[in-house]
Amino acid sequence: MEYCSNGAEETEALGEALARTLRPGSVVAFTGDLGAGKTAFVRGLARGLGIGDRVTSPTFTIVNEYEGGRMPLFHFDLYRLGSAEELYDIGWEDYLARGGVCAVEWSEVAAEDLTADVRVDIRRGAHDGQRRIRIEGGEA
Fold it and tell me: What is the mean pLDDT of the chain?
């Protein structure tokens, strides 16, 4: 499905709607422009999972963990990884086994090793603030 978002609130609302369809162990792989709203979408995922924590980009920590909802959310940012092997060095398989949702920004870094249930591509739209969002494999 393709969507047009005209602001962060609409992008978060799509993430919130998608979260309601996810199951333990779901992997959501994100691609898209730098600064296009991937973290805003993940904020919506967290809200849809019932997580009230403030969601921030894990660019420098690689992964942020959020608990307290109907299942945990593990928010990855692979932008700084040099290869897919580094994903396993940070415990990827352990996160999968914990029964939460893994939201993976810059998933193309590990595309060959990453099996995703849902793929979300976010691109800048025709004007400032507008985003084109394509979701494959889930229902938002």
Answer: 92
